[in-house]
Write a structure and sequence with these properties.
336 residues; alpha/beta; Spore Coat Polysaccharide Biosynthesis Protein SpsA, Chain A; UDP N-Acetylglucosamine Acyltransferase, domain 1; seven-stranded mixed sheet; 6 helices; 30% strand; elongated
Length: 336
Amino acid sequence: MRIIVPMAGMGKRMRPHTLTVPKPLIPIAGKPIVQRLVEDIAKVCGEPVQEVAFIIGRFGAEVEKSLVKIAESVGAKGTIHYQDEPLGTAHAILCAQSALTGPVVVAFADTLFKADFTLDSSVPGTIWVQKVDDPKPFGVVKLNEQGQITDFVEKPQEFVSDLAIIGIYYFQDGEYLRSELQYLLDNDIKDKGEYQLTNALENMKNKGTTFVPGRVTEWLDCGNKDATVFTNQRYLEYLQERGENLVADSAKVTNSVLIPPVYVGEGVIITDSVVGPHVSLGNQTNVRGSVITNSIVQQSATVLHANVTNSMIGNFATVASTPDDLSLGDYNTLRV
């Protein structure tokens, strides 16, 4: 099994957090989004992962080194491939054509999921979907009475289905997928100016390839700051349900209260503070005299005498306020 992760986008909706690192390396409960994604796919696949192929922009040697380590964490070889022009999803996947062999999972790295199924590798193709209230912003699939996919419909304005495609696909035959993607490029078949994976899926279906849906129980978006903070909240709850230890032994918590679920990384110092629920503190972060709820604080950040909620605070960032020295008379109201 190989996992292909297209992630060359600039992550503009996540700025300023993506000015120094690509979006998939932003942490959720202490691990990068893409690491959570790869680990969760590996569990669902139910078989060893040989290779994880990352398709990226020119993000630099440190990013590439981090990605290779993520692949190695699931026992796989990590490979780096470049997409230098934003020419669409089909073009992106084909940038890793050497990895398109045997069974492959293609997973776009701006989403996480919760699933309680094991992938059926005997089926030619599986498109992972989630039922949504409003399907208009998404690509959706239609099913026949046998539960097989009959149509791929992009952003339907009239109701045809509420099963949204979440961006994760299984293909039993990677070489077949590669040939269909190459066909689009060789014949300059574009949709809205780009080479799209959905066009290849449509061609494969028309040739008789059977696709079935893989239904996840929860789909978590990491497309913008608010969505990512919510994803962190939900993921902390999953980890708590699994009984995972979320507070590092090296953390120093003094005269403070942690309201679970809270992730506390290595070397974190918390003094005279209330932290939680739904807070992730990256390694070496320092929190003093503060209240933090529902937030992501990345590595080596400092939070001093602050009240923080629904927030993302970047690596090495500082949030500092000053305790108020007050003389407030009876029945007065002061809002700060």
